[in-house]
């Protein structure tokens, strides 16, 4: 009889251990799924902010396109800039390095759901919330068209969005090439 109760005790301990291991595995999977879900949200926001940057560059070029007194690339001068949604020109970035650039920080307006850049001191306008994101656009003369291209017939806009999540840096970079097809 003593042998049966020993087996029952051992079986109970083994069964309990299996249940605990299974629960720990399930909880671990659930926590990593939640963590990845949050990261996905930030990646989608960053990609959207980078796309907005490319679209603003396209809008600047399109708006200035009809000004026949200007060159085709009017408004797309080489440099490092910040801009806000709906801008038709760019503001110079306070520093060409996105990590130390104060006006590269993005602020969020919860009422309009629009992002805008911080001021030159890195502060958001009253009512706006500072976000994790920084955005900068670099405009340079391109050279993909080779020797068939006269000087300044291609511009390259590179939009960089950076943020840090759980002490890990992330970035998204999008590039758009503009050519003189007027």
Global shape: elongated
Structural class: alpha+beta
Number of strands: 7
Q: Radius of gyration, rounded?
A: 26 Å
Q: Determine the oligomeric state from the structure.
A: single chain
Compressed to H and E, one letter per element, the order equals HEEEEEEE
Continuous helix count:
1
Query: What is the overall pLDDT average?
Result: 82
Task: Report the portion of residues in β strands.
Answer: 25-35%
How much helical structure, as a percent, in the residues? 25-40%
Largest sheet: 7 strands, antiparallel
* First and last CA, distance: 98 Å
Which stretches are poorly predicted, pLDDT < 50 over at least 5 residues?
none
Provide an overview of this structure.
The protein is an alpha+beta fold and 182 residues long. The model has no long low-confidence stretch (mean pLDDT 82). Strands 1, 2, 3, 4, 5, 6 and 7 form a seven-stranded antiparallel beta sheet that branches. The relative contact order is 0.15. It contains one helix and seven strands, in the order αβββββββ. β1 and β2 form a beta hairpin.
Provide a concise account of the structure shown.
With 182 residues, the protein is α+β, with helices and mostly antiparallel strands. The chain has one helix and seven strands. It starts with a helix and ends with a strand.
